[in-house]
Each structure stands twice: as structure tokens, then as C-alpha cells.
Amino acid sequence: MTVNIYDEANRLESALRQSDEYQAVKAQLEAVESNEESKAVFSQFREIQMTLQEKQMSGQEITEEDIAKANELAAKIEQDENISKLMQAEQRMGQVIEDLNRIILKPLQDLYGQDNQ
């Protein structure tokens, strides 16, 4: 019997949306979005994050000013309970995705004789 791998992937996607970890990220993001101060700080954080990634990917130098701005925002984020809870929820969701990735790659690791670490 042949398995349609894409059907399985779609079922996994649906299960992820129903998981406690995803629901926690969704709830925390809603809490951030519904608080004007949290929303503004989070928006600034995402903007500086994208700017730094773009600079890094294009080989541009990250300036002292960029670093200072990022550090200033990091301090604001740590003080914002809504954002800090969102980041904790994102970390838990990230761990789930990492675990799933390890499971998905196991057949190839087995095939090539690699130990699953």
C-alpha cells in the first residue's frame, strides 16, 4: 500500500494547529496585539530583527548603532510580560518542530547508518 506523504503532512499541519503549543503561541500573540505598548515594542523588535538579517545575508556590516538599538529593544522586551510570554510559547513550539524534524529525518538517518542524536 502506497502512502501519500502529502496527505500525511497535511494531517500533521492540522494536528499542529490543534496542539497546546500552537494554541499558546496564538493566545500570546493575541495578547501582544491587543496591548498597544506591547504591539509597538514587538513591531520594532521584528523590524530590527529583519534589518539585521538582511544586512547579514547581504554581507553588510552590522553597526554599533544597530547593536545598541537591538540591545535597547531586548531590554524593553524582557520588561514586557506579554512579549516575554509569547517568546516562551514560541520556544516551546520551536522545540516541538525540532522534535518533529528529527522524527521525519529518522528514515534517512537510518538508511545512511547515522546515529539519531
TrEMBL record:
The residues that cross the membrane are none
Describe the family membership recorded for this protein in Swiss-Prot or TrEMBL: Belongs to the UPF0342 family.
Q: Where are the annotated coiled coils located?
A: none
Record the organism: Macrococcus carouselicus
- What is the protein name stated in its UniProt record? UPF0342 protein ERX40_05715
Which superkingdom is the protein from? Bacteria
